[in-house]
Amino acid sequence: MNKRGQRWRFLLGGLCAIILNAEPLYLGGIQVSNTYTSLTFSLDYFLSHKQFLVSIKLLFVAFVFCFLYGVQIRKKYTVYTFLRLRNKERWMFGQFMQVWCDALLFFGIYAAVTFGICAVGCREFPVVSDIWIVLMSLFAFSYMGSIFAIIVNGTSFFIKAKNAMVLGYVCMILLAFLSMAGSDFLGRNPLLMYSNPITSMSMADCNDARMVIAGIGACVTVSLLLSWILACFCVRTEHVWEA
Predict the structure, then answer these.
(1) Using an 8 Å Cβ cutoff, are 214 and 134 in contact?
(2) Residue 193 neighbours by CB under 8 Å, 6+ apart
(3) Which value, to the nearest 10 degrees, does the dihedral of the CA atoms of residues 59, 65, 66, 67 take?
(4) Does residue 14 contact residue 113 with C-beta atoms inside 8 Å?
(5) pLDDT one-digit tens code per residue, 201-235
């Protein structure tokens, strides 16, 4: 992909933020961090009131990311690439890791634009705690988006790309419902909540540094394991070259 195409893909993250989170510009706000959290993903309301619609906005942005990057690895894995690679598993694993890098850029623009909208709407200069929440939410967004994009990329080696996209979105919806159903269990086990792609946003307002570090470690471990497992399976199929 050329740099211009890549740049436009990243800018779509900012466009999603403007379209989905423009309310503070005309409704205003009280505090930047609270407004930002309510716009992106109000976790407490989602878990306590079982409101699936609270997660629709975030799932939509994740779906846009999966739509843009969901089959990029399959497109790169051509017969020519296959014949040149000495260590196919390592190459595939690196490609899955690149998905998280792309997610950081895509959701970084989404978070930055949303944060700017909140600051303008609240007419308040952000403080350090506000920036911390945005940074942690960026980690959670990119983790969620990359996990689902990794699933879509991996399954696209075995089924058609369109079916892989549908499967990835179904996985997101099912995980959202399971998170609501198991909210009490997740509440008693915060580390599971942090490593859950849907509820990992809870790290943003956590004041326990040890739990945040443990949560980041759990997210990274889940991503590494999933990427390596899929990498080992994907290099053993040649269905990707059909049709």
Answers:
(1) no
(2) 186, 187, 199, 200, 202
(3) 110
(4) yes
(5) 888 777 788 888 999 999 999 999 999 999 999 88
Distance, CA of 135 to CA of 129 (rounded, Å): 10
Instruction: Look up residue 89 and give its amino acid.
Output: E
Contact 152, 65 (CB under 8 A): no
Instruction: Please name the residue that has the structure tokens 């471990």.
Output: 221
* DSSP assignment string, 8-33: HHHHHHHHHHHHHS-HHHHH--S-HH
- What pTM does this model have? 0.86
- Measure Cα distances from 181 to 48, 50, 194 in Å: 10, 8, 16
Q: Which two tokens stand for residue 95?
A: 């490609």
Distance CA 114, CA 14 (A): 8
Residue 223 · residue 100 · CB < 8 Å: yes
Q: Are 190 and 211 in contact (CB under 8 A)?
A: yes
CB-CB neighbours of 7 under 10 Å: 10
Q: What is the pLDDT of residues 155-193, one digit of tens each?
A: 988 888 888 888 888 888 888 888 878 878 887 888 888
Query: Considering only CA atoms, which of 133, 131, 134 is closest in space to residue 107?
Result: 134
